[in-house]
Amino acid sequence: MARKTPQWEGRIVRVLVCTERKSFVTKELPEARVSFEGLEGDRHAGLTRAADVRTPWFPKGTPIRNTRQFSLVSSEELAQVAETLGIPRVLASWLGANLEVAGVPRLTHLPPGTRLFFPEDTTLVVEGENEPCIGPGRVIEAHHPDVQKLASRFVKAAWQRRGLVAWVERPGIIRAGDTVKVVLPRPVTYVLPSSGV
Amino acid sequence: MARKTPQWEGRIVRVLVCTERKSFVTKELPEARVSFEGLEGDRHAGLTRAADVRTPWFPKGTPIRNTRQFSLVSSEELAQVAETLGIPRVLASWLGANLEVAGVPRLTHLPPGTRLFFPEDTTLVVEGENEPCIGPGRVIEAHHPDVQKLASRFVKAAWQRRGLVAWVERPGIIRAGDTVKVVLPRPVTYVLPSSGV
């Protein structure tokens, strides 16, 4: 059944991919093919992945379904992070992002289950917030050796502004300049009953 | 990072599978193997499925990721549906369920992203509520030809009591009698900003 849920549009500023294994830093492409495995050629593509520190309820290395195929960041949130860190800019590529999106308010807060529809068939579903870790902080620091403690300050500065991870619901193509339609899931409230069922 | 989220335990009353294509009615098994495709041999197993009336935002038949691998129902909610319909019982198999769970309050209300951990590795993630349609109503009616309009009354009686659909995060085995640990996702609130970002 179709449901009325809030929706609006953003714009894809950059499509980025990481084809190396040594570094997570991404490189800009004009467009990219998307399969059920993720962004073609990207190091995070795959139907499954190994459990890690983000899924501590599984033994490390356990094969689990890969719901972290894509990393998305917001132009506006990156600008906020740069301002907080006192540097001119933080690039999406430094964070290993695959998509930089402009015009979606509070991108990092989009709830799990949010759908992102692209003009050429690709549909992504939001898994959740991508919690910041120190890795991208070190990349930022390497670009600004003159600024104090950037690596460790990054985690706090990027809290709830580091973007999202998402998985592919429908394959297609994504191009820089694409409009992306954002559709929130229906809200669900679960309250424990006071007694019985 | 591990998070403190509410959790409790339920019990698997029945494991059920549908190996036919003509009917969605399921049959009880003592145990079943679970792969990334779903319940082995079940008609809903598969990494992808064809878009249908439940995903009207895609052209019908489009291959999309299958997040409806498992159907779960609650013993307590089934009893409520039976009572509303005025019949002695509604069986999980009549609804095509794969798992009947007891002891989880308001099962159908569990939010998307809820994780279900089984003792022998299987982990399922809740996709969302399984909205009732008339199909199971017809099966119930066939078992009670003496009771009026059961098929059409089912949809209303089963609203928010028809259980959930879920997908496999980690493969394993599920057995009747298993304890299932239920872990709610961290709540996320998304509020549109009043102006700008």
TrEMBL record, chains A, B:
Gene3D superfamilies in the cross-refs: PK beta-barrel domain-like
Superkingdom to which the source organism belongs: Bacteria
Residues annotated as domain MOSC: 26-183
InterPro entries reported for this sequence: MoCF_Sase_C (IPR005302), MOSC_domain (IPR052716), Pyrv_Knase-like_insert_dom_sf (IPR011037)
Lineage: Bacteria, Pseudomonadati, Myxococcota, Myxococcia, Myxococcales
A molecular-function term among this protein's GO annotations: molybdenum ion binding
Name of the protein: MOSC domain protein
